[in-house]
Amino acid sequence: MTGLSAVVDSATEVTLTWNTLVTDQDKGYSIISEYRIQMDSGSGFVTLSPNPADNLGTTISGLTEGNSYYFRVAAINKHGVGPNSPSILVNMVLPPH
Question: Do 60 and 13 contact (CB within 8 A), yes or no?
Fold first, then answer.
């Protein structure tokens, strides 16, 4: 995965987006079936619900205002889970208006 980014939508919700890797079967890549999204709130990464392959983003709600979270994403294909994206840190603080 490349280009993982986050936008804090509210004090308890964040939207993640990312870019897919090339899935050209002629180059030996397998088609991505879904994405694994993981979050770490300080006790290690946990896997959230899988994301369909045709959706390069997701909104995560139920977070705690003022807390910080790490997120990462990995593609899944018929061979299993690919490498994780670099983790990004999200601070659940809204910018001033």
Answer: yes
